[in-house]
Amino acid sequence: MHSKTPTATPADLARLRRRKETDLYQPIITAFAAYGIHLERRNAGRIVIPASGGRKARAVQLGQAGASDLIGWTTRVFSVSKDGCVRPWSLSSIPADQSGGTLRLQGTVVAVEIKPIGWTPRNRAEQVRHVRQLAYLDRVRKDGGLAWVIASVDQVKQVMEGRT
């Protein structure tokens, strides 16, 4: 017996488009945690500290421009046999007997940029920021990390199960 995949109505899509990035942070962090990926919210931007006590107002940069909304890590496990063969494992499937091989753990950086469903840049500043964010994700990938633009908890599942 096959279950029918639910179809989103126009009202459902409109509601999802109204969601803010900030509404998505914790649910997405929780969804990735179920797959062994540990993420933390990182703020980037600029704040202005108002003038007080005879000091001038000043701007302070928080984080690196273009840095992802969520930064974290995951652990990759692999074994190296005596003949140099490398075999990846998941944390839950490591065999008890490595037959003389060496088990290794490798921490891997993870970067996630969150963009709500239907998001598009509204002005030149948002376009520039988005280009910087995509460049940041590309640098993470080129250096061996994992990086995604994620719009929903459902998309986390799709990415982690290799369907996107």
Main attributes?
single chain, alpha+beta, two-stranded antiparallel ribbon, 164 residues, 30% helix, 5-stranded mixed beta sheet
Structure description:
There is one protein chain. This protein is an alpha+beta fold and 164 residues long. The protein has one domain. Helices cover 30% and strands 29% of the residues. The protein contains 4 helices and 7 strands. It has helices at residues 10-18, 21-33, 124-142, 153-160; strands at 37-41, 45-49, 58-62, 70-80, 86-89, 102-114, 146-150. The strands form 2 sheets. Strands 1, 4, 5, 6 and 7 form a 5-stranded mixed β-sheet that branches. Strand 2 (45-49) and strand 3 form a beta hairpin. Helix 2 (21-33) packs parallel to helix 4 (153-160). The longest helix is centred in the C-terminal third of the chain and has 19 residues, at 124-142. It is extended, with a radius of gyration of 21 Å.
List the helices and strands and how they pair.
Blueprint (H helix, E strand, L loop, with lengths): L9 H9 L2 H13 L3 E5 L3 E5 L8 E5 L7 E11 L5 E4 L12 E13 L9 H19 L3 E5 L2 H8 L4
Parallel strand pairs: 6-7
Antiparallel strand pairs: 1-4, 2-3, 4-5, 4-6
Helix pairs in contact: 2-4
Count the E strands: 7
Count of separate DSSP helical elements: 4
> Judging from the principal axes of the Cα atoms, what is the shape?
extended
How many domains?
A: 1
Q: Output mean pLDDT.
A: 83
> Which strand-content bin applies to the residues?
25-35%
Largest sheet geometry: 5 strands, mixed
